[in-house]
Amino acid sequence: MASAGAPVTGAAETAGLRERLRPYRAVLASRARSQRAYRTSFALDLGSSALVGVVELAEVWVLFSNVTALGGMRFNQILLVFGLADLAFSLADLSFGHLDNLPDFLRAGTLDVFYLRPQPILLQLITSDLSLRRLARAAVGAAALGIGLATSGVSWGPRTMVLLALGLVSGYATFAALFVWAAGLQFFLLDGAEMTNAFVYGGRYAASQPASVWSRPLKLIFGFFFPMAFTAYLPAVTMLGLPGPDWLPAWLGWCTPAAAVWSWLMGLLCWRWGLRHYQGGGG
Amino acid sequence: MRATARVYWRLLVAGFRRKSAYRLAALGGLVANLTFGLLKVAILFATVRAAGGHLHGYDTASMSTYVWLSQGLLGSVNLTGRTDLALRVKDGQVAVDFLRPVDLQAATLATEAGESLYALLPRGLPSVLLGAVTVGLRLPTSPVFYLLGAVSVLLGIVISAATVYLIAVAGFWLVETRGLQILYMVASGFLGGLYVPIMLFPRWLGIVAAATPFPSIMMYPIDVLSGLGGAGGAAELVLAQLAWLAGVAASGQLLTRAGRRRLEVQGG
């Protein structure tokens, strides 16, 4: 009896979970459909999003048209850093980027509507949209990563595969956490929303740089507190077998999940703190 | 004539005062400016050092000047391509603007110039000051560059507003101008020298940039203020800005007049 009971409970639990996830799936599917409804507009959105990625890459390329190596990396090695950072950031932006709209909800008082539904507010906000156009920018990141992997002399093997998978998943999680972290602070900042751009979009910019060029304060801020060096530079350094700079030794490339966990802890802490602070929109 | 000038002056002052109401927003912008500035310093200093200390006329001190002047201007020139006017054209409210006894273009530019000039106080000057304290920078000693620089910054502000105005009035034909707006955002930052000074571009890309109004918005004011090309070079850049302003403003007037006839306000 006992041995037969366990799978039944398991199946019931899965069914229950599926039932609970259904509203989220329905919203996300409708968001995805609505973006594809206007084909020309969607094609333009995809094109412009790809252009943003290409121009960001061009900014890096312009620097390398003047010098052969920056921070101990050649251009094809930097492609690895840029690709990892941009791919992970674009995917996080696709699924979490709309948390940036929270100040609009707060100002208009429309956040209160979310309280009426029997679902966690953060989860509702995250699943309230899906910016499919960011897929184009993710593709630019993936292309840069692919070219970087093929030309920078990375030795292929299980070690590289594990580093790459760990780095990408953790990088995605870290960037996603930054969006949650920023959203939590919006409850206090309101008009000062731009302050969080410093670490969200500044963080993306930092992540695509070779961290070896940073001054010590930058290494503290973007190396550890907002662990941007862990999203791309450190996995790339470990993959390439390069020595890391001061404070950022190459073995840290294996610790990318720790950076993701830290970011989520801080993000959720800020979110809880912000939500408790919120007094409602009045009316 | 004097009465007309006073109307636009009042609009400029109103724009200035409107921005001054959002102090926390200004502080947020300053924090973002400082962070991006430090990251730009890191990568550009590394580039100058990798090139042996000198790169197309830049050393680390003049590169720092470039970084902090560009960060300071960022809050005042429009590099996003977004305006209220674009929304008003889209939903037809611009019809109300046309009823007012002022020129739509001149009124829009005056208000935006006022907002931009205010942003120099809490964002522009502190950014340069913070850069001077944390990294250090080199400014010219001759007053000529400051005088020409002030003119050049003002021209940059108006040219950016006048170029973004073109996107907004393109809405008379296109209705949805988001595509143009993103194109402007991408092109103006890159070709205007926001992340990498234009001197570092390969030759062909430098020529492409010079064929657009974007360097006039940010790069030329920075070059004039930092005195890199001497007094003669600075005067040339200001002349180039004047030419771009004339071209962009004239196109705006033509498009407004043509678009006004196309405007169709729905509903009753």
Task: Explain how this protein is built.
The complex is a heterodimer of chains A (283) and B (268). Chain A is mainly α. Helices cover 72% and strands 0% of the residues of chain A. Chain A has twelve helices and no strands. Chain A is globular, with a radius of gyration of 21 Å. Chain B is mainly α. Helix content of chain B is 77%, strand content 0%. Chain B contains twelve helices and no strands. Chain B has helices spanning 2-20, 23-50, 60-74, 84-91, 94-99, 104-134, 143-174, 178-191, 203-210, 214-217, 219-226, 230-262. The longest helix of chain B is centred in the last third of the chain and has 33 residues, at 230-262. The radius of gyration of chain B is 19 Å and the shape is globular. The model of chain B has no long low-confidence stretch (mean pLDDT 91). The A-B interface holds A 41, 44-45, 47-49, 51-52, 55, 58-59, 62-63, 65-71, 189-199, 201-202, 205-206, 209-210, 213-215, 217-218, 222 and B 22, 24-25, 27-29, 31-32, 34-36, 38-39, 42-47, 50-51, 55-56, 176, 178-179, 182-183, 186-187, 189-190, 195-196, 200-202, 205.
In short:
The complex is a heterodimer of chains A (283) and B (268). Chain A is mainly α and 283 residues long.
- Helix-strand sequence of chain B: HHHHHHHHHHHH
Query: Looking at the chains present, what oligomeric state does this protein adopt?
Result: heterodimer
Measured by residues with Cβ under 8 Å of the partner chain's Cβ, the largest interface is: A-B, 43 and 38 residues
Largest sheet of chain B: none
Calculate the mean pLDDT score of chain B and round it.
91
Strand count of chain A: 0
Mean pLDDT of chain A equals: 89
Note the gap between the termini of chain B: 36 Å
Please work out how many helical segments of chain B DSSP would assign: 12
Q: In DSSP terms, counting alpha (H) and pi (I) runs of 4 or more, how many helices of chain A? A: 12
Q: Biggest sheet of chain A: strands, sense, closure?
A: none
Approximate shape of chain B:
globular
CA-atom Rg of chain A in angstroms: 21 Å
Which spans of chain A of ≥5 residues are poorly predicted at pLDDT below 50? 1-5
Q: From the alpha-carbon coordinates, what is the Rg of chain B to the nearest angstrom?
A: 19 Å
Tell me the β content of chain A.
under 5%
- Beta content of chain B comes to under 5%
Structural class by SSE content of chain A: mainly alpha
